[in-house]
Amino acid sequence: MLWLKALHLIFMVTWFAGLFYLPRLFVYHAMTEDKAGSERFKIMERKLYFGIMTPGMVLTLVFGLWMLSDYAWEVYKTSAWLHIKLSLIALLVIYHLLCLKWLLAFKRDENTHSHVFYRWINEIPVFFLIVIILLATVKPFQ
Ligand code: HEM
Description:
The chain is mainly alpha-helical. The protein has one domain (2-138). It has five helices and no strands. The protein is elongated. Protoporphyrin IX containing FE binds at residues 5, 8-9, 12, 60-61, 64-65, 67-68, 72, 89, 129, 132-133, 136-137.
């Protein structure tokens, strides 16, 4: 059903906006030395994670699973692309939860990672975005 696919894609973009921006906030937060600046980053990180990213993730998964149960599992259950896509999504959810771990460390002023660490972390969602979109649209390995 095309409405489900449209909603799936809208919330996927919302989720990825956060997956790209939150580690960027961690980069600047890790470079911040003043208390006021750090407190401001904490508010931005909390609002992004709980107000945008997590609802985006949940609704992407809800509409994806809805499409699977509606028609897609019957059509694609033997297609390798779908199984690879679902495995990558499981890893992406773990990445999302790791972001929560780093967010909570910043909240308690216990971050131990450098801004360089978060710069590298920031690249991980790029890989997921490219590979998952290629799998879902090109559907290689039928
Ligand atoms: C539990 C998570 C997910 C499930 C169960 C799921 C499942 C699905 C299903 C069943 C379709 C319809 C396929 C079709 O009819 O051709 C679809 C479409 C799509 N999904 Fe997902 N998806 C999930 C997460 C994601 C994520 C995280 C992304 C992006 C990174 C994504 C990107 C897409 C795209 C781009 C399409 C449109 C493909 C097309 O019509 O050409 N999905 N998804």
